Amino acid sequence: MDTSKYLKTFIDIGLTERESKVYITLLSGRMFTATELQQAVNIPRTKIYEVLNKMVNRGICVEKKLGRNKIYEAVEPKLAMERVYARYQNDLNRKKELIVQISEVFTPIFENSKSIVNPLEFIDVMKDKVQIHKRYINSVRNTKREMLTFNKGPYACDNSQRLGEQEDEETRLLKRGGTTKDIYELKEFEELDWLLESVKKSLRFGQKARVVEKLPIKMLIFDDEKVMFPLEQPIDVSNELTMIYIEHKQLAEACRILFNCMWNQGKDFSEVEKYLTGNGELIAS
Question: Which carries the bigger pLDDT value, residue 190 or residue 91?
Answer without folding.
Answer: 91
